[in-house]
């Protein structure tokens, strides 16, 4: 469908606003963890699940989202997914114990996963090739700024309000997007019937869910925790085997045969894991252990958020000026229809890495009796992951220079 310039700008604004709200929501609850531990009388291992579960579900939903985009009309899919997000946020706002809060967060994640993939695909469809870099830069700004701003925003809000207000903010922000979409969003493409591999979706969700829950449980019930981890890995192996042999996989794991793509996927996973894991445990250190306020926590998190906002659009402008290999030389060899599969695979694995990092770092803090020593262990794990990430990127940079 051909759109005029004004319509494209309005649609892009609606899509970016929706994606920003969904991504902001991913980390909005991390600063509220100490408050929820106190209000509900729960452990740190349990309190991290509204964030870890949210990130995991987004990763699992992402590959399905691309198929849903093809299966349904764009307008209907967008309105239904934003409507689901609003309903889930209302559930969280009125919740009075932990389990409805967790359910609300998981439902928000289903909606967010659809919205984020929808926004990326739709933006690429309506953008002219010569403006692709700028638009992708704006989208990457949203992708990086949303999770970075989440803890800052929640820290400020929790200085004056309860954690219920965080769900209220989600209702208000997405309601504005929904209303704008009702009046401005056209059908960008027609629906077409395609098969969706739902068994693979279930295998991936159950497998990763069991594995991460096992890590959280192993300290209090070692036998149960180890059993859950083993069962989870078996489900993940089943999922991987199904994807490897399928003609139309949910995630095209065969792309990982390419050494360049495999290296850079590992690097991105490590980067997002370090980012999200540290954003989860730093508020716990400052609020629960050091006795700092939510506002003080927000100030600590602010510089990273600002850096993300500044860097992403600049990267997009360099893309437009100098081409792809200046920014992502690792993309060579991924062409044609494989690009969409590579994007889905990278986004899914990045989210899974974030969920795994959250769980492992929270486990590290909880497994050591002294909180300070536990935090140091978590930071040591983060430092090791950062070193590996730098080595991976440096190796690829050397290979790129050698092949230039």
Helix-strand sequence: HHHHHHHHHHHHHHH
The number of strands is: 0
The radius of gyration is 21 Å
Q: Which percent band covers the strand fraction?
A: under 5%
Helix percent band? over 70%
What is the count of helical runs?
A: 15
Give the rounded overall mean pLDDT.
Answer: 82
Distance between the termini: 39 Å
Structural class per helix/strand content? mainly alpha
Largest sheet: none
Q: Which descriptor suits the 3D outline?
A: globular
Low-pLDDT stretches are 323-332
How would you describe the overall organization of this protein?
By secondary structure, the chain is mainly alpha-helical. The chain contains 15 helices and no strands. α1 runs antiparallel to α8 and α5 packs antiparallel against α6. The chain starts with a helix and ends with a helix.
Produce the secondary structure layout.
Blueprint: H1 5-27, H2 33-40, H3 44-47, H4 49-71, H5 74-94, H6 98-126, H7 132-158, H8 164-184, H9 198-217, H10 222-245, H11 259-289, H12 294-322, H13 324-328, H14 338-367, H15 371-403
Helix pairs in contact: 1-6, 1-7, 1-8, 4-6, 4-9, 4-14, 5-6, 5-8, 7-12, 9-10, 9-14, 11-12, 11-14, 11-15, 14-15
Salient structural properties:
mainly alpha, 81% helix
Offer a quick outline of the entry.
The protein has 404 residues and is mostly helical.
